[in-house]
Design goal:
The protein has one helix and ten strands. By secondary structure, it is mainly beta. The chain is elongated and about 70 Å long.
């Protein structure tokens, strides 16, 4: 998990209270927020942390070809330059339809509309399947619902 640090300015009175509003443009599965004093002392308050976790992004996918998927299939979510920003962890496979949970890597920033590639290489071959999509599409369903079936095309 990545994290953000908010620092309370030196000299802040013990009687002062306020609301901290968080706004981020980062996309991640989870984050940790830590609040502490500027000089790491406990003069104003005891430092505190809170972790925030989004509901998992789940869905189903299939291959547009003959190769089978398995619970061990390694499928990634990448930028066009090949940087892996997430993994589709296969939860189960029935026939040639796999159910997955998307896990994002918090160290990479990307936007909702940036082109991302779902990428799969069949083990022990050079056969590649992929689909270009956006994160916006992957989260366009209702909260708690699965992403509609996506089909990876043989390249």
């Amino acid at each position: 998990m990545g994290g953000y640090y908010l620092t309370i300015p030196k000299g802040t009175s013990l009687e002062q209270r306020g609301t901290i509003k968080f706004l981020t443009s980062r996309i991640a599965s989870a984050e940790t927020v830590t609040i502490r004093t500027a000089d790491n002392s406990q003069a104003l308050f005891t430092p505190a942390s809170a972790s925030f976790t989004n509901l998992p992004i789940t869905g189903t996918l299939t291959l547009d070809g003959e190769e089978p998927l398995s619970n061990n299939s390694f499928i990634t979510l990448q930028r066009k330059n090949g940087t892996r920003v997430g993994d589709l962890d296969i939860q189960s496979v029935e026939g040639n339809i796999a159910t997955y949970k998307l896990t994002l890597r918090p160290e990479y920033d990307f936007t909702m509309d940036e082109d991302l590639i779902v990428y799969y290489t069949v083990p022990n071959t050079s056969v590649v399947y992929q689909l270009t999509t956006t994160f916006s599409y992957l989260v366009s369903h209702e909260i708690g619902e699965s992403v509609p079936l996506i089909t990876l095309k043989k390249q």
